[in-house]
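Action item from last meeting closed. Structure (110 res):
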């Protein structure tokens, strides 16, 4: 990760920033961010969307492990209503402590 935001942000902020940024939109690192925005193009939330959110979030957050800021990253997601996916990211830091971020993805307008 070339932006080096880890020098200025908490793990929780790094998770939110990564997942809240469209991949390719970060000026100093085009690989930074997630592909969650692509799900909005699907036009619907279905039985597979939660699994797709989990996969995309894990892929986007892999840099935390690569850069040695996390030992592991786990993502769990579930559908909550017609157009919402709730997800929880658990980051195990190198010292074994945990950081948990709970958010909702609202990629599709009702």
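Sequence:
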């Amino acid at each position: 990760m070339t932006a080096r935001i880890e020098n200025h942000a908490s793990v929780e902020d790094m998770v939110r920033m990564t997942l809240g940024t469209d991949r390719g939109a970060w000026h100093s690192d085009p690989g930074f961010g997630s592909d969650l925005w692509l799900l909005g193009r699907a036009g619907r939330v279905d039985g597979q969307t939660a699994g797709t959110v989990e996969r995309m979030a894990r892929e986007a957050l892999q840099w935390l492990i690569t850069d040695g800021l996390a030992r592991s990253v786990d993502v769990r997601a579930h559908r909550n209503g017609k157009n919402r996916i709730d997800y929880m990211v658990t980051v195990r830091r190198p010292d074994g402590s945990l950081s948990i971020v709970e958010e909702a993805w609202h990629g599709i307008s009702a």
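Note appended to the action item: The chain has one domain: 5-105.
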